[in-house]
Amino acid sequence: MSRTEPTPSAWIDGGRGAVIRWDVAQTSLGPMLVAATDKGVCRLSFGEDPAVLADRFPKAERVRGGEHFARLLAEIVAAAEAPGEVDFSHIPVDVAGTPFQQDIWQALRRIPKGETRTYAQLAAEVGRPGAVRAAGSANGANHVSLLIPCHRVIRTDGSLGGYAWGLDIKAKLLQREGALLLL
Questions:
Q1: Which residues span the domain enclosing 66?
Q2: Which of 20, 55, 66, 121 is the most buried (most CB within 10 A)?
Q3: Does residue 89 sit within a domain?
């Protein structure tokens, strides 16, 4: 009887043994880089050069495109263009982080479209109300923006706070989802 080895995560040992399919799609938010293993999306970013994949996953086999990947990419583009209308919560992700980061990322995925949370609310939701800064750091360590919707987190004063891909993209995503913003 042969035993099937599980697909390795892209985030273990530089991606050793993982095959990462990737491509860049043009969106109304700018070029969007998407990369995925068989486990799920491991990178989703805006305006990022694909060369970053070699830095992040130096030991992985990186392959552009593919038929199955093209369908996934089209679904993610649709989610970027209409995040308030397209449900992307079923798209699997391949991410690695500390237990606290994983808790924060799961909490982010539970925030409904059109709603926001503050960093303090996020920290409290995972049972660590005093870890507001750590919640912000975990939010910033998210490698699959949009799919783990870190754009839904704002400051306590209602301002947008930060976003790795720029506040303009964050504001557009929130507006497309129907979130009420103090701009």
A1: 13-81
A2: 20
A3: no
The string of pLDDT tens digits covering residues 130-176 is: 999 999 999 999 999 999 999 999 998 888 988 989 999 999 999 88
Question: Could you count the other beta carbons within 10 Å of the beta carbon of residue 14?
Answer: 15
Straight-line distance from the first to the last Cα atom of the chain, in angstroms, rounded to the nearest whole number: 62
Any domain includes 5: no
Whether residues 21 and 74 share a domain: the answer is yes
DSSP calls for 9-73: PTTSGGGTT-EEEEEEEEETTEEEEEEE-SS-EEEEEES--TTHHHHH-TTSEEEE--HHHHHHH
Token pair 């539970």: residue: 110
Flag whether 7 is in a domain: no
CATH of residue 40's domain is 3.30.160.70
Q: How far, in Å, are 65, 119, 176 from residue 100 at the CA level?
A: 33, 14, 29
Same domain, 103 and 56: no
Phi then psi dihedrals of residue 136, to 5 deg: -65, -40
Residues annotated catalytic, as ranges:
150
Strand partners, 22: 35, 64
Q: What's the predicted TM-score (pTM) here?
A: 0.88
Query: For residue 178, is it left (φ>0), alpha (ψ between -120 and 50) or beta?
Result: left
